[in-house]
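Reposting from the mailing list since nobody answered there.

I have sequence plus structure tokens for a pair of proteins and want to know whether others read the tokens the same way I do. The first protein:
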Amino acid sequence: MLDSAVNFRTQADIKEQAFNVIKSYGLTPAQVLNMFLTQIAKTNTIPLSLDYQPNTKTANAINELMSGKGERFSVDSFDEFQQKIRDLSK
């Protein structure tokens, strides 16, 4: 028995794209949300792949640091960190 309502806000373009996909499966947004919440409740996990896949630029930077190349630095505060990042990006 459905006896609880959920209301949330999202970006209009994301909503439109998602609803089109949902409709292509012959489902309603409410059905999909109920399936999603049921899966979370049954498995005690979020049924999404949250694995981080870096883009090429980030992967290259990671590989450079792992191979001992690249500039390493340490800072004592977040403000110093932000300034260092700004300086490096110039």
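The second protein, same order (residues first, tokens after):
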Amino acid sequence: MMNTPSLTSKAKREVFLISGYLLFLAGLSLYLMLLPPNSQERTFTLETLFLNVVGTVVIFSPILYIWWRSSTEAPLNPMVKQGIKPKAVGGIVALALVLPFALLPLEFLVDNVITLLPEKINKAAQSINEQSNAIVIVQQMEHSPLVIVSLYIALAAMPAIIEEFVFRGILQHRMHVSGLKPIWAIGLSSLIFCIMHLQLVNLLPMMILSSILGWLYYHGQSLHYSVLFHALNNAFSITILIGLGGDPSTDESSPWFWVVSMGAIFTALMLLKSLHKTLHSEDITQPKNA
């Protein structure tokens, strides 16, 4: 069924409202982070993790309300009822394991570019990155079995479900319905995703990650694939941090750094090519929600 002009117009209005709200939140967060820091060091507990999840739901509640208000119109609903292909799941698991290594050279490049900026801007960017990065939470908390399980739930599973529903299932989906070409819908929703996370230092790696999430949603026509990849990527990062004792640094001068990275890039490209064949892309503006 083709989208009617009224439905397209409604999707455009909702894209404008949702994007504006998300950018407002990002601006407010940035302003608060640039305020003079409190002399008292932040501490993280299990209660903090729980409140973090609740806070995320509360922050996104206006967007969830927009979705709920339009939920009776099938073309605007996120695609979540598609059959899951086991081969695609295997490819996504492999890609989630490989991609962090494939992005290492890009992170190294960005780190070096940041050092060329004026000192005040450099320090501000690093400070914002640290305050908005889950690495700090993992580093400060005691790694008991209960805490580790809680970290995986609060920092891997729940953000993947909530953020994919909002950014891919609601925002990107409405961009498609509004008439935007897939590449623009994926790119713009990914950019807003990156801005919301305030990862200024890791902007390019996160943009690639977010674009892959959007690509998986578009080609797989289901939130299941992007949620799975998002959760696995977060979980793998947490595992690395716990395994390394909270020190994620790498030695770029080692030849093995580049050997592993180049091998990971090649493997990631092959996995993406295989996933493209497996998922069999169709037009997202005609979702099979029913």
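Reply #1 (J.P.):
I read it the same way you do. The first helix runs from residue 5 to 34.
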